Amino acid sequence: MVRLFSPRFWGGHLLMVFCVAIALGLGLWQLHAWQARREAAKVDLTNARPVALSSLMGGDDPFPAKALGQPVEFSGHWLAKGTVYISGRVREGRDGYWVVSPLLVDGTRSAMPVVRGWSPKPTAAAATGAADVTGWLQVGEGQGLVDPDPNDDVLPEMRIASLVQHVDADLYSGYVIGRSFKAGGAPPG
Description:
189 residues; alpha/beta; single chain; 5-stranded mixed beta barrel
């Protein structure tokens, strides 16, 4: 035991103390990064003031992760084709469908998929004309559910890649759950 404290081993001891200090510093840094990420995830944007969609993303931009749940507002024209129904959406204990219609955003050549409401059956009145939409920005779902009939307008999940075959326009990389509509965008019954 006394030999371990002899001067010839001091260099090894100093190296060991240095490595332990580095490991502690990296561990504390990782703990701080984890806590900061948890704090950022707790931010609830649902009651925040709506911002212009164009201030967060453009038609060909990747989804801005920090904007998940951010209320946005934008204007455009409903596309005549492209309304789809997302199955497996429950409201008041009843199974039904989200009604999703593409809105060609003013000033762009891209359409934003908008959840217009809920329906007990995969049918809804068409959205037509111009509309001003306010809603919550969401990232597409992607659980890998298989569409049993790719030729119909019913999809198993709100996946942007699945919408591409139903809409004749470039699509944004997310979608909006509509909160309020002005002109031509009344939610389905």
